[in-house]
């Protein structure tokens, strides 16, 4: 039999995916599974975006321009201007989801064997895209005790080698919900300038920031024109994960020009989704206000309830819709599987995302889980009650 | 300034893209450009697919399963059964266009430095995906004198090294329009079995076959379960290039399992496009009969008219909607640019795709161009008239 590539063997399996068969089994047994494990919001997509697709008058579903249409990119530039990010349509390359933007960025800035420094825990698929490109992720641990703040900048400095091409952050962060401050961004800006490497910021949760806090984008740093690259996506902003439209944004011309070559090879982003995404830019501000209010109250319910569980530690998130909880168990992988296989409370159980998959350093995060607050408050309350009972039973085994 | 990757520098620019600014300039001067250079059909998308999207009742545009929905993959298996290809839904992984299928296949079967043998001329983006993966394309020349038939199988044998992971064909072929015979496929099957490598067939033009000829798929070879991988796409079949839905098909479990890891990292194919693609499977047979009739008559007009041009050589295509013409010029690149910059006939000119970009061997195809017959007959006639006049003027310079 012909052999599979080494790269194929090294590609990680999604940490959540491994649990999926156990969730299926539980459902077949008539047990309702509350999904705290996923990043798929239950919020409705703005009607203006849905209607644009329903009312489209396409007769030939043709390729879009590889870089996205000029009109969409111009409107995106206006969107960024409203967020104090000064870019032109030519600084924007539209991609098939934030995923593809990340993949293009890695290909554009790093070769096989090169390194990218990422604070851990981080979005697990960063590891997948790095593996697919033969690029090494150099993790730098952020700690639950510090609410997952930026690790000391000297720690970054120690890790920078001639192979280091970039520092990659996710702001606000999935899975921790941490929002980097302006001061932290300025520290990162200084270090990438000093070492002449890139600062890549995945800012897909830009709008999901609570209690009047402000998001500070790396592209608000006027001095970072050549070093800064933003990864973005419509997925969470407009609750349209299935659109698969994202973009990469940089004032560095060579970055955009090179990424465009990768974009040309795959021809075009999906046309219907572009119709939805362009219309979504007209979403009224009231939509975001409502969504934000909903998430804040969900977060508050979740954190308050979680903090009542003895032995559980949780960092209060200021952004996105996740938190990392340290559980009073040794192995969250085992516990997560047990929840699906052997536990229910009134025929309900919960699915959580074991956090080890969000760390690159072996051994870290073993007793942590990511909990997403993409369910309504009543379900969240029930979910935490299940978690509490389950921990008692599990630890009493 | 931080540096761009070596890979990024090596990524090829689309050969057509290089000409685009000259076409723009001509249009600004009021000259109409007839596009013989592109693979975007002017045929309407089946109404059943367009209507499915218009009438969708999605309220949350959610992620699709990474591998595509079970229902779509089951219907795809039925579609393949009708084409004498015996596969199960589990043998199918739905992708974001045929492009992504190819990208996943290369990642799944080849590491940096590995080689894939491809008869040239070939679809230019193969080179892009190989470059992005650090994989080398080993070309084997097919010749216009042989109508671009499969090169002698001994020539393949000479090129197979321990680094060779696959032979990749496009059947019917873009850019030549060549349709491989059952005998040719059987020869390829024997050689990949002998050397224990993969046979990858890009069969996206399966339906575009003329004069009652039959397509013979590599998966009709029952003995090739572990070695055969099909790349497929809805783009040309239903004239929905902008959907960005394709798939890879293989009865080799490890291939599907490994490719799924790449698929999980990018989360999901585009949801609206899946709605269109699933509905498109119900397209009535009459649609294909009409489309085929249209393409046959376009091809006949194009080839008949081209053959009237003195010094021009053309291989009559039996499939797809392209042909390669050898022009009485030294450098088709220069001629293509001149057509846009310095020539017009009654305020019209043509854009052709210089063929050198479809060859990996330096120097081959320099006097050739790919001509697509994706325009209606009257436009094609005018286009060939322009080509004829242009050649006379160009050669008289």
Short description, anyone?
Two copies of one chain form a homodimer. With 397 residues, chain A is α/β, with parallel strands linked by helices.
Largest sheet of chain A: 7 strands, mixed
How far is the N terminus from the C terminus of chain A?
A: 46 Å
Mean pLDDT of chain A: 96
What portion of residues of chain A is helical? 25-40%
Number of helices of chain A: 13
Strand content of the residues of chain A, in percent? Answer: 15-25%
CATH top level assignment of the largest domain in chain A? Alpha Beta
Strand order of the largest sheet of chain A: 2-8-7-6-5-3-4
Stretches of chain A where pLDDT is under 50 for at least 5 consecutive residues are: none
The radius of gyration of chain A is 21 Å
In the CATH classification, which architecture of the largest domain in chain A applies? 3-Layer(aba) Sandwich
Helix/strand-derived category of chain A reads alpha/beta
- What would CATH call the homologous superfamily of the largest domain in chain A? Type I PLP-dependent aspartate aminotransferase-like (Major domain)
Oligomer: homodimer
- How many individual domains of chain A? 2
Q: What is the β-strand count of chain A?
A: 13
Q: What are the secondary-structure elements of chain A, in order, as H or E?
A: HHEHHEHEHEHEHEEEHHHEEHEEEH
């Amino acid at each position: 039999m012909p052999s599979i590539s080494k790269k194929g063997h090294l590609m990680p399996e999604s940490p959540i995916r491994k649990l999926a068969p156990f969730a299926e089994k539980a459902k077949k047994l008539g047990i309702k599974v509350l999904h705290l494990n996923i990043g798929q919001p239950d919020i409705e997509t703005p009607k203006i975006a849905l209607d644009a697709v329903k009312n489209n008058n396409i007769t030939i579903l043709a390729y879009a321009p590889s870089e996205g249409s000029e009109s969409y990119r111009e409107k995106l530039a206006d969107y960024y201007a409203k967020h104090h990010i000064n870019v032109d349509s030519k600084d924007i390359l539209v991609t098939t989801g934030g995923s593809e933007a990340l993949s293009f960025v890695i290909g554009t800035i790093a070769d096989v064997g090169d390194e990218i420094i990422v604070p851990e825990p981080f979005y697990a698929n960063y590891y997948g895209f790095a593996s697919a490109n033969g690029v090494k992720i150099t993790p730098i641990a952020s700690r639950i005790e510090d609410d997952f703040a930026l690790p000391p900048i000297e720690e970054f400095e120690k890790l920078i080698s001639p192979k280091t091409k970039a520092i990659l952050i996710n702001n606000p962060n999935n899975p921790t919900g941490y929002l980097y401050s302006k001061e932290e961004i300025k520290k990162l800006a200084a270090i990438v300038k000093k070492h002449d490497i890139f600062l890549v910021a995945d800012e897909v949760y830009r709008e999901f920031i609570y209690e009047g806090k402000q998001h500070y984008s790396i592209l608000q740093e006027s001095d970072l024109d050549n070093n800064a690259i933003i990864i973005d996506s419509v997925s969470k902003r407009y609750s349209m994960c299935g659109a698969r439209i994202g973009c990469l944004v940089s004032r560095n011309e060579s970055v955009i020009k090179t990424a465009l070559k990768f974009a040309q090879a795959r021809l075009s982003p999906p046309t219907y989704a572009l119709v939805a995404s362009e219309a979504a830019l007209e979403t009224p501000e009231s939509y975001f206000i409502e969504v934000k209010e909903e998430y804040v109250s969900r977060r508050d319910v979740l954190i308050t309830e979680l903090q009542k569980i003895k032995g559980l530690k949780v960092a209060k998130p200021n952004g996105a819709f996740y938190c990392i909880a340290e559980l009073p168990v040794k192995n969250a992988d085992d516990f997560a599987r047990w929840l699906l296989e052997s536990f229910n409370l009134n025929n309900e159980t919960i699915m959580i995302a074991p956090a080890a998959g969000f760390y690159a350093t072996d051994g870290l995060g073993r007793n942590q889980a990511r909990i997403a607050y993409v369910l309504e408050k009543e379900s969240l309350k029930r979910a935490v009650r299940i978690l509490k009972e389950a921990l008692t039973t599990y630890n009493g085994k």
